[in-house]
């Protein structure tokens, strides 16, 4: 009688181990790719968020300066007369810029409103802060809207240009024509990692 060959086939131990090794390598490669893609996505989202924040901050600063009014405000010290613009390069809590702005748009009417607002910029714990009060003659209890524009800031360097002459600070007399304002204000925002962002804006609605 001739013996029959078994029709059942299987894997040897060596083949099984090789297959498991290949599967493990593929799984590791897939996991690495997934982690890399997730990390890249997080970095991209963070960069997009930072870019949006930078665009908003630059727009606020430029719009404030463009709407700068000759309406006077008193010095923080209370000494001396009012000025229409106080500006100084500084890295302290004292305001870097102080002025009154006008020209807000009423979105419901699409027309200019006469409302004036008092604006301050200062550095606090490495953050550039913008504060706005609902009226120029702010007093105790007046609502203040504060917003952090940039973080990790080392210092702010200001430059005021008037008739091609540059100054590091500015104290303008109130009640004078518009042309007593600087023609252009430039802010160099120096970050802790030594990056520098320069924002320049024409004053008083100049084009």
Q: What would your notes on this structure say?
A:
With 207 residues, the chain is α+β, with helices and mostly antiparallel strands. It contains one helix and twelve strands. It has one helix at 13-66; strands spanning 83-88, 97-101, 105-106, 111-112, 117-124, 127-133, 144-150, 153-162, 165-167, 169-173, 184-191, 196-202. The strands form three sheets. Strands 7-6-5-2-1-10 form a six-stranded antiparallel β-sheet, covered by helices on one side. A four-stranded antiparallel β-sheet has the order 9-8-11-12, covered by helices on one side. A hairpin with a 2-residue loop joins strand 5 and strand 6 (127-133). The chain is rod-shaped. The N and C termini lie far apart (108 Å).
- Give the overall pLDDT as a whole number: 79
Poorly predicted segments = none
Note the gap between the termini. 108 Å
- Report helical residue fraction: 25-40%
Beta strand count: 12
What fraction of residues sit in β-strands?
25-35%
Biggest sheet descriptor: 6 strands, antiparallel
- Supply the number of helical segments: 1
Summarize the helix and strand pattern as letters: HEEEEEEEEEEEE
